[in-house]
Recover the amino acids of this structure.
């Protein structure tokens, strides 16, 4: 086999390689993906809203490969993983911390003590540059965000505010993060620091919080199980930029795999980096023995 040059695979976790959506996963999608990730020239980065502990939980529960890098906590943390050792890349923290003038979450939280609708989340849910609150599920979030934005502007802090609802705990969640802490910027930072070129990097995602990366012009894969709405928005944005060829939509029927979750990532990888085809063919062959009754 021809020597494979270094490749960086950046992937979202939930409903991208974790099959925790409604659609079915092909039985050999993850076994093939695991084998690819083992290749010495394939470097894997997980890009997730999860924190380190929840990423580790997912790796364990879904038998995912150990990554080489992990971008977690909505882009506010970047880890390098060496021999099972997760090292925080402090340079990334310093980079995003500029938006907050180096002020960490604890000190920043003091500015919001007078706002009644928000309640500080537990310390383990905070990161140096992510300040997280609970709100009521039915809070009138637009005026609330406006109020928070005013405080931030007064203090000269540049931040994005992300509000969502955790349907399981029935809590509103409000995260304040530095403006430049996002999935796309974190991936670009990683590419630059570790010298991965654009043609050797692919990203896979499934949902609205992946859209920045999916429509950035980086080689991107929107897994087949994505919602139609996301597919539509991504294509519209890219066609406005004349860059629709930078997004791959898996068709399925690829070595018998359906294009959902990891199967979509694998199909897209060979589309953008054809030289991985041989490796994928071998991995498929081996995975048939792995899973027995395929
Ligand atoms: Mg996802």
């Amino acid at each position: 086999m021809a020597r494979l040059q270094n490749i960086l695979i950046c992937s979202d976790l939930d409903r991208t390689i974790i099959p925790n959506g409604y659609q079915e996963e092909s039985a050999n999608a993850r076994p093939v993906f695991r084998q690819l990730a083992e290749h010495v020239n394939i470097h894997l980065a997980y890009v997730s809203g999860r924190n380190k502990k929840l990423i580790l939980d997912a790796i364990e529960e879904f038998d995912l490969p150990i990554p080489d890098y992990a971008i977690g906590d909505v882009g506010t943390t970047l880890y390098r993983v060496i021999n099972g050792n997760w090292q925080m890349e402090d340079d990334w923290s310093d980079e995003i911390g500029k938006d907050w003038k180096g002020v960490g979450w604890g000190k920043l939280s003091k500015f919001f003590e007078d706002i009644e609708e928000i309640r500080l989340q537990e310390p383990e849910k905070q990161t140096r540059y992510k300040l997280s609150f609970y709100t009521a599920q039915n809070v009138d979030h637009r005026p609330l965000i406006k109020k928070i934005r005013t405080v931030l502007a007064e203090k000269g802090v540049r931040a994005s505010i992300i509000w969502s609802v955790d349907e399981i705990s029935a809590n509103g969640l409000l995260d304040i993060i530095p403006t430049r802490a996002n999935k796309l910027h974190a991936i670009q930072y990683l590419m630059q620091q570790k010298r991965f070129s654009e043609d050797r990097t692919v990203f896979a995602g499934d949902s609205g919080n992946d859209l920045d990366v999916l429509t950035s012009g980086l080689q991107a894969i929107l897994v087949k199980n994505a919602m139609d709405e996301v597919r539509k928005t991504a294509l519209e944005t890219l066609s406005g930029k004349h860059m629709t060829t930078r997004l791959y939509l898996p068709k399925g029927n690829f070595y018998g795999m359906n294009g959902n979750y990891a199967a979509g990532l694998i199909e897209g990888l060979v589309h953008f980096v054809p030289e991985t085809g041989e490796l994928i063919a071998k991995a498929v062959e081996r995975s048939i023995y792995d899973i027995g009754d395929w």
